[in-house]
């Protein structure tokens, strides 16, 4: 009988019947031409107990096939930023040459949220209209065409890894587990050993192709790196599904998420038919990689949060033509009411430290330049899309783009450290690393910051001299912008104490660099003005004459004015530090 007939027979809604089927609570229920069909001799008891035909003796929780909308329903029960436009993009790709999609982005950037949203939208047997009716996708012409009309297989590859028994073969376990789940609805696949065979039988029986959603597809590469036998077997499984004559026969669409793009093997990718959207080549999905600036501004207004302060912490990813914020950090800062290093706490700093410590020519200099605020040219083409085949500085930098530690400007083909949250992680990794020259730079920055607080101008000038000599080739130290880079690196240790703002409009002009103390920091505010071949006194006079310190009129703490100059003849820096006095400006 149909779900409509069952709802009339049992005096419950059709939606409830479909939900029971999707949750695996009606043994023997299966989909035929997109509709649930229920055994005629099944007896529904309203107390929640039921009886079934004699040959069906057990019920189960659905793991992979048509698992329903619970995941996305949980997401909608909290603060939600509408990313449902991704569904319209996916709808346009279904049953087309573009139907195989792989989206890679860093951990905690909303990959699983997107996968769960797609599962809830497409999944046959549930009624998810209420989850989407107020979202952007509801305005799209394709909205009702595909809503809960497809058989969906949803795989979270981290689940298989976390449940693997000692000595158990990963790939055999994956195929066996999925086939067992499918066999509850399609008993004819129970004897199959290969997933491709089971999928073929299901599609042949129903006449409907599948939508496959694979979350964290590259988890085996991350967790089993170096285990060639396992990875080769995994690649063969993926090839059988996505690079065979059966691919078009089995799938209306495939949506994979991961951190790394698809692994390269010699001249040919393991799955070259996929359309990839990554941190390096995101278009046209850049707005779905993280939170956009307008989305974050809206959240800040709603929750009474300072957008500019939050921007300093979590902005900096330029993906395509969008400025992208880290979703994990933004949402946690809103929930906790505090700006802090939330994303970096989800993984130990050792991984970043190990990559920074690699002994490739130019890597140390690149890290130092980026800590100073400079963008570094990078060639992303040689990267092999794994964690082990690193052969150059550019390979390391490209990997750090995909891991979320660096931002990539595709127009300039350059990388930079995106924001204060990530910069603080670089500092922590360096302090605990093995690159003595990097550790030395951080230690000097610590000393320079304390000397500034103590108003020891000569010590500050001497330390900047040393850091300039250590980090910058003389040929490139030829203007105020080069000076700015060295000074920003010199004050790197201030990241734990300050919000750093460059070219801040204040008074009658723009202050070069302003260090605004964080709420919990017990330290003076700093206004830093830079001069090239003039004098540090001239820098201080400009701060005073142009009233840059007006920005701190309502600030109750101590304010220091810092003037720094580089003399091209003596090849030395000079520094002057004064405490801000209101009467000097009157």
What does this structure look like?
With 586 residues, this protein is an alpha/beta fold. The protein folds into 4 domains: 3-51; 70-277, Rossmann fold; 292-434, no CATH class; 436-585, Trna Endonuclease, Chain: A, domain 1, CATH 3.40.1350. 40% of the residues lie in helices and 17% in strands. It is built from 24 helices and 22 strands.
Short structural description:
The protein contains 24 helices and 22 strands.
Task: Give the SSE layout.
Blueprint: H1 3-10, H2 14-22, E1 30-32, E2 35-37, E3 43-44, E4 50-51, H3 70-76, H4 85-93, E5 100-104, H5 111-122, H6 129-132, H7 143-146, E6 151-156, H8 157-162, H9 170-185, H10 195-206, E7 210-215, H11 219-223, H12 228-242, H13 247-250, E8 251-258, E9 264-265, E10 268-269, E11 275-277, E12 291-292, H14 293-303, H15 307-314, E13 317-319, E14 322-325, H16 327-336, H17 350-356, H18 363-371, E15 376-377, H19 393-403, E16 407-409, E17 414-416, H20 420-431, H21 436-453, H22 457-471, H23 480-490, E18 498-506, E19 509-517, E20 525-532, H24 536-545, E21 559-567, E22 572-579
Helix pairs in contact: 1-2, 3-5, 17-20, 18-23, 21-22, 22-23
Main sheet: strand order: 6-7-8-5-11
Largest sheet: 5 strands, parallel
Could you tell me the CATH topology label of the largest domain: Rossmann fold
Summarize model confidence as the mean pLDDT. 86
């Amino acid at each position: 009988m149909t779900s409509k007939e069952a709802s009339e027979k049992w005096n419950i809604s059709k939606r409830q019947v479909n939900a029971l089927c999707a949750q695996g609570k009606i043994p023997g229920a299966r989909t035929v031409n997109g509709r649930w069909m229920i055994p005629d001799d099944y007896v529904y008891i309203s107390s929640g107990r039921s009886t079934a035909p004699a040959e069906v003796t057990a019920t189960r929780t659905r793991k992979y096939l048509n698992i329903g909308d619970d995941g996305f329903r949980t997401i909608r029960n909290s603060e939600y930023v509408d990313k449902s436009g991704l569904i319209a993009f996916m709808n346009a790709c279904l049953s087309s040459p573009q139907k195989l999609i792989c989206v890679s982005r860093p951990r905690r950037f909303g990959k699983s949220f997107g996968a769960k949203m797609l599962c809830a939208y497409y999944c046959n047997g549930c009624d998810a209209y209420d989850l989407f009716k107020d979202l952007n996708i509801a305005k799209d012409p394709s909205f009702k065409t595909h809503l809960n009309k497809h058989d969906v297989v949803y795989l979270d590859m981290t689940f298989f890894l976390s449940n693997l028994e000692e000595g158990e073969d990963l790939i055999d376990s994956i195929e066996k587990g999925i086939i067992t789940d499918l066999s509850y609805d399609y008993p004819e696949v129970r004897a199959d050993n290969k997933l491709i065979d089971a999928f073929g039988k299901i599609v042949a029986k129903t006449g409907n192709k599948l939508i496959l959603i694979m979350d964290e597809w590259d988890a085996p590469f991350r967790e089993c790196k170096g285990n060639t036998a396992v990875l080769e077997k995994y690649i063969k499984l993926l090839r059988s599904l996505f690079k065979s004559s059966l691919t078009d026969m089995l799938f209306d669409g495939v949506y994979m998420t991961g951190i790394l793009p698809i692994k390269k093997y010699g001249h040919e990718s393991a799955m070259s038919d996929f359309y990839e959207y990554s941190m390096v080549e995101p278009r046209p999905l850049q707005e779905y990689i993280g939170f956009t600036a307008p989305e974050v501004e809206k959240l800040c207004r709603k929750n009474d949060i300072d957008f500019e302060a939050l921007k300093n912490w979590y902005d900096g990813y330029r993906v395509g033509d969008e400025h992208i914020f880290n979703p994990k950090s933004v949402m946690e800062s809103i929930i906790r009411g505090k700006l802090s290093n939330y994303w970096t706490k989800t993984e130990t700093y050792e991984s970043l430290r190990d990559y920074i410590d690699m002994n490739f020519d130019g890597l140390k200099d690149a890290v130092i330049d980026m800590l100073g605020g400079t963008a570094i040219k990078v060639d992303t083409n040689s990267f092999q899309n794994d964690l082990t085949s690193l052969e150059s500085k550019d390979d390391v930098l490209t990997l750090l783009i995909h891991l979320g530690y660096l931002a990539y400007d595709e127009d300039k083909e350059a990388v930079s450290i995106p924001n204060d949250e990530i910069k603080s992680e670089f500092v922590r990794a360096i302090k605990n690393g093995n690159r003595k020259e990097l550790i030395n730079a951080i230690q000097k920055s610590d000393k320079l910051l304390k000397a500034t607080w103590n108003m020891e101008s000569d010590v500050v000038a001497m330390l900047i001299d040393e850091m300039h000599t250590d980090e910058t080739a003389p040929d490139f130290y030829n203007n105020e912008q080069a000076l700015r880079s060295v000074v920003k690196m010199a004050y790197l240790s201030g990241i734990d104490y300050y919000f750093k703002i460059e070219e801040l409009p204040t008074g009658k002009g723009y202050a070069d660099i302003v260090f605004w103390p964080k709420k919990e920091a017990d330290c003076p505010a700093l206004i830093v003005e830079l001069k090239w071949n003039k004098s540090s006194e001239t820098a201080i006079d400009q701060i005073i004459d142009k009233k840059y310190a007006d920005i701190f009129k309502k600030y109750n703490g101590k304010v220091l004015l810092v003037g720094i100059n580089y003399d091209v003849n003596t090849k030395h820096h000079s520094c002057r530090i004064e405490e801000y006095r209101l009467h000097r400006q009157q």
